[in-house]
Automatic annotation (TrEMBL):
Keywords: Metal-binding, Zinc, Zinc-finger. GO terms for biological process: endosome organization; endosome to lysosome transport. Residues 208-254 are annotated as: Disordered. This is Uncharacterized protein. The keyword Glycosyltransferase does not apply. It holds the Pfam family PH. Residues 35-130 form the PH domain. One of its GO terms (cellular component) is early endosome. Residues 146-206 form the FYVE-type domain. Residues 244-254 have a biased composition (Acidic residues).
């Protein structure tokens, strides 16, 4: 990544170029206060394996995207406010020169081409962060990689073609379909959508949700009597709606 002190015109031109490289669907990046600190390729660990992504560090956010064939066009843009990011340095292991980027919506491993590059990224992100506020949202659990467990981490049955792997959105564990058939709102991922969670996490989350729903009803109607059947119907309808809810570039069989 380039370590640069930019002239304002140059900064603007470079940000415009980044904005353009994401096409018309990308977020507007050019803002008066925004400075492009550096850019480069990092390998991001995802369920489908390690993939090179284009990363752009601004003074207030980190932007990354998948690289389209010729290497100058990017898609699947992700924008993470720097205030919400927490970094964790890791020893070489699964990947060389790797570290962990934790955010409220998603946490993932990245690796740089060299140790120097890794340290530059981590240092620049940390320096930019010191002046920024955090949303205070809890950070998402890092998903346990698919190959890390051959058995469901809740019921210990072996995975196979008929007994597939899924991820609990709350604890990040690899679990089977049966152990993750429930859905619940995980606030740091989405404020209202119900997402796949394991049974253990569901108990805690659902308890919290029910308490909030009860309060809400009491506030609206001035009574606290339950309406279980209606509610359950609505819940299963929503389960169906969000059945395919997946995070970014993961396959539908999450
Ligand atoms: Zn299981
Ligand atoms: Zn869980």
């Amino acid at each position: 990544m380039g370590d640069t002190l930019l002239f304002p015109d140059d900064n603007q031109r470079r940000i415009e170029a980044v904005q353009k490289s994401f096409g018309p669907v990308g977020t507007r990046l050019l803002e008066p206060h925004r400075v492009l600190i550096g850019e480069g390729r990092l390998v991001k660990q995802s369920r489908r394996g390690a993939q090179p992504k284009a990363f752009f560090l601004f003074n207030d956010m980190l932007v990354y995207g998948s690289i389209v064939i010729n290497g100058r066009l990017f898609k699947k843009q992700k924008v993470i406010p720097l205030g919400d990011i927490k970094l964790e340095d890791l020893e070489d292991g699964f990947m060389r020169h790797q570290w962990l980027i934790q955010t409220p919506g998603k946490s993932f491993y990245v690796s740089a081409a060299s140790r120097e590059e890794k340290l530059a990224w981590m240092e620049h992100i940390t320096v930019c962060q010191t002046a920024l506020p955090s949303s205070g949202l809890p950070l998402a659990m890092t998903w346990v990689p698919d190959h890390a467990s051959a058995i469901c981490m809740r019921c210990t049955r072996s995975f196979n073609a008929a007994h597939r792997r899924h991820h609990c959105r709350k604890c990040g564990f690899l679990v089977c379909g049966n152990c993750s058939r429930k859905r619940a709102v995980v606030r740091n991922i989405h404020p209202t959508k119900r997402v796949r969670v394991c049974l253990q996490c569901h108990v805690g989350l659902r308890g919290k949700e029910e308490k909030e729903e009860k309060e809400e009803r009491r506030r609206k109607r001035g009574d606290s009597s339950g309406l279980r059947s209606d509610e359950e119907e609505q819940a299963s309808f929503e389960d169906h709606l969000y059945e395919d809810y997946i995070e970014e570039d993961y396959e539908p069989q999450d």
